[in-house]
Amino acid sequence: MKDYTLIDNTEEKQYEFHIDGYLAKIEYIKTNKGAIYLTHTEVPIPLEGRGIATQLLEKVLKDIEAKDLRLVPLCPFVVGYLQKNPDWRRLVIRK
After folding, report:
1. What is the CATH number of the domain that holds 27?
2. What's the pTM value of the predicted model, to 2 decimals?
3. What's the pLDDT score for residue 95?
């Protein structure tokens, strides 16, 4: 699989991949207390089945970790990924 470049589009509040004229994205809400809520993942139908959402999320998680943010997963795709990859749960805010 091709390695896509992660874009943090702060104006639109989403992480993005631009692929073949399409936009794959994970929308977020950041707080001023160091939390980031991942709210929605979207991959256009022509890009589905290529592992793009997984690559996007993995790069987002690395970016969250590098920025020392705490994660609140609201998107079902993100929640499912964290269940299958428990090592990333270290980023999740514990209540």
Report:
1. 3.40.630.30
2. 0.95
3. 54
